[in-house]
Write a structure and sequence with these properties.
One of its GO terms (cellular component) is ribosome. The protein is α+β, with helices and mostly antiparallel strands and 182 residues long. The protein has helices spanning 20-29, 31-37, 47-62, 108-122, 138-146, 175-181, and strands at residues 3-5, 10-14, 67-73, 76-87, 92-99, 128-134, 150-161, 164-174. It is built from six helices and eight strands. The chain has an eight-stranded mixed beta sheet, with helices on both faces. Helix 1 (20-29) crosses helix 3. The longest helix is centred in the first third of the chain and has 16 residues, at 47-62.
Length: 182
């Protein structure tokens, strides 16, 4: 199975149906915080909903349109990270992620995104990887900034979250910039 060990405790593994119960439990525990940023939160009301998403993501993986990964600490899921909207012809993709509240603030997401960018450039031969973060989600923006991603601009009122249009800050890095960063 596809697994990238980041350190002795942290790894990224291909998302599987076995992750559904763990991931749904995290969503339930952190629903209030996730709901603030993630438009899919309200639609994920049962383990079956999470399982449906995992199956969708695996289909996208099979068609080379997505790389859906589970973030695990000591073998237990703590969140998800992916490359989505993978465009092989134009050689670009976008990063998406979320993390259990109790795992935040310890560099888990920065190290996970760092590894995902390396996978995107080294293994998927991408030229550009983008990351979008809510204008008020400063921790998510800080991940992009710590990794040397460049802010490209703001997509005004771009996503509907909780019946409110939210603006997104767009960051990106190019393959040659990533190589210099590494």
């Amino acid at each position: 199975m596809f697994t990238h060990q980041i350190d002795a405790h942290l790894a990224l593994k291909l998302m599987t149906e076995e992750d559904a119960d763990y991931l749904f439990d995290i969503i339930e525990q952190d629903r209030r915080q996730l709901r603030r940023w993630m438009p899919w939160t309200d639609a994920t009301q049962t383990v079956a909903d999470e399982l449906k998403f995992i199956r969708f993501a695996r289909q996208k993986f099979a068609s080379n349109e997505m790389l859906p990964l589970t973030i695990v600490i000591d073998g237990l899921p703590v969140g998800c990270i992916d490359l989505h909207r993978i465009d092989r012809e134009q050689q670009h993709a976008e990063v998406g992620y979320w993390l259990k509240a109790k795992a935040q603030g310890h560099g888990v997401m920065t190290r996970s995104v760092n590894r995902l960018l390396t996978i995107g450039f080294d293994e998927l031969n991408l030229h550009k990887i983008m990351l979008r973060a809510d204008v008020d989600n400063h921790p998510s923006q800080a991940v992009a900034q710590r990794l040397g991603m460049q802010q490209e601009g703001v997509l005004r009122d771009h996503v509907l979250v909780n019946n409110e249009f939210r603006s997104l800050v767009v960051f990106s890095t190019l393959e040659n910039e990533w190589e210099a960063h590494e």
